[in-house]
Amino acid sequence: MRDVHRFLASLVGIFYLTCRLGGATPKSLCRKVLLLEPSSEHALRGHLLTNITVPSASSCSFFCFDTPECFSYNVGPGPDELEFTCELSDSDAAQHPDDLVPRPGFTYQGYENACLTSVPCSSHRACRIGYEDPFRCTCQMNYTGLSCELPKNVKVDVLSAGLDDDVGSDYCNLKVDGTEYCLKMRGHNIAAFYMNGTLIANAAFDTHRDEAAPNNMSYLIDSLPSNTLVLVAVQDSAFVRKSPAAIQSLIALGAVPPVWPNGHRASWFLIGYKGEPRPSWVKQGFADRYQGPSNGTAVFPREGCLPHGNQIEKWCSSP
Ligand SMILES: *[C@@H]1O[C@H](CO)[C@@H](O)[C@H](O)[C@H]1NC(C)=O
Ligand SMILES: *[C@@H]1O[C@H](CO)[C@@H](O)[C@H](O)[C@H]1NC(C)=O
Ligand SMILES: *[C@@H]1O[C@H](CO)[C@@H](O)[C@H](O)[C@H]1NC(C)=O
Ligand SMILES: *[C@@H]1O[C@H](CO)[C@@H](O)[C@H](O)[C@H]1NC(C)=O
Ligand SMILES: *[C@@H]1O[C@H](CO)[C@@H](O)[C@H](O)[C@H]1NC(C)=O
């Protein structure tokens, strides 16, 4: 573990030099900070970002410098004589003067904090010190996208209601990240997405009246690419028209018996996944006529490689 830290600490030094020498690093990603007078025998309390062990006090300095979220650090005695404890903080004594407290053997080091005087960053964006405009704002933890508008997790909300269920007006929800994709028609409503939350297709099949509906639905499901989120919710009534092909297609998405609504005006939904292995968030719900609505939610990490706060930075997650 300590070897890893030593290795990282030595890398950090190189990034620092590359940036200072104006090498291949884009200027906008270079960090330039002004060190304030250190406070010896003191440490900042309660704003810990990372706690590591380093081979020298200067490694701690490089580590903070290379961590965009780092505003200040405490460095002090480590677990043994040859090592140092390095605590990076996501805030500083300028913002929290009361948290700068005496601590034997430790030194607190802060940077000049431009975030205190500049315009605050917009929603889901956080101010980082030491970067040139417009790159001083980066995404807060758990948000991504060019304007930091996307949560790193995809959030799914599904609701199915039969005509006689007591729900007011909303008889179908197929929501991803708060956006409604249900066409709200009688029968089976479907929406399919890439695992980054982008819609592939949505459709509705009148499985109450239209004889072709179940096989058409089966055809749509079977033509979807692998590794997709597939949401299904019935609305009004979806009982009369059914087919073995449609049942097989729903089973392939993770549906288990009963794979069809339990009767006239019964509710039924599926938060399904096309692909292997089946994720733990796949779920299904149903209720008899008058007993609905049925609803459920799921949350999973967003897949993809998205611009993160600016054109250069990227946030990536792989399947
Ligand atoms: C950081 O880790 C050291 C041990 O390596 C520990 O003594 C110290 O209390 C930790 N700091 C915080 C703020 O948890
Ligand atoms: C970010 O997401 C992680 C994992 O899903 C969670 O543990 C953490 O509390 C979240 N942080 C914030 C600030 O929402
Ligand atoms: C989502 O993933 C699909 C397929 O990989 C891709 O074509 C699309 O551009 C991605 N959308 C975003 C917003 O990244
Ligand atoms: C089913 O597919 C047929 C042939 O493609 C089409 O004519 C019909 O409108 C479709 N019906 C539904 C309910 O989608
Ligand atoms: C179902 O909807 C009700 C009312 O909107 C909500 O309170 C409940 O949490 C939802 N249940 C699930 C599993 O989403």
The unique ligands bound to this protein are:
2-acetamido-2-deoxy-beta-D-glucopyranose
**What value does the average pLDDT take?**
88
Structural class: alpha+beta
Order of helices and strands: HEEHEEEEEEEEEEEEHEHEEEEE
Number of strands: 20
Low-confidence stretches: 1-18, 20-24
The figure for the number of domains is: 2
Span of the ends, CA to CA? 27 Å
Shape: elongated
How many distinct helices? 4
Strand composition percent: 35-45%
**Helix residue percentage:** 10-25%
Largest sheet: 9 strands, mixed
What Rg do the Cα atoms give?
Answer: 27 Å
Organism: Nematostella vectensis (Starlet sea anemone)
Keywords: Disulfide bond, EGF-like domain, Secreted, Signal
Protein name: EGF-like domain-containing protein
Disulfide bonds: 139-148
Provide the fold topology.
Elements: H1 2-20, E1 39-44, E2 48-54, H2 57-65, E3 72-77, E4 84-89, E5 100-110, E6 125-127, E7 137-139, E8 143-144, E9 150-151, E10 153-162, E11 172-176, E12 179-180, E13 187-194, E14 199-205, H3 213-223, E15 228-236, H4 244-252, E16 267-274, E17 283-287, E18 294-301, E19 304-307, E20 314-317
Parallel strand pairs: 10-15
Antiparallel strand pairs: 1-5, 2-4, 3-4, 3-5, 6-7, 8-9, 10-11, 10-18, 11-12, 13-14, 13-15, 15-16, 16-17, 19-20
Helix pairs in contact: 1-2, 3-4
This protein binds 2-acetamido-2-deoxy-beta-D-glucopyranose (NAG) (5 copies).
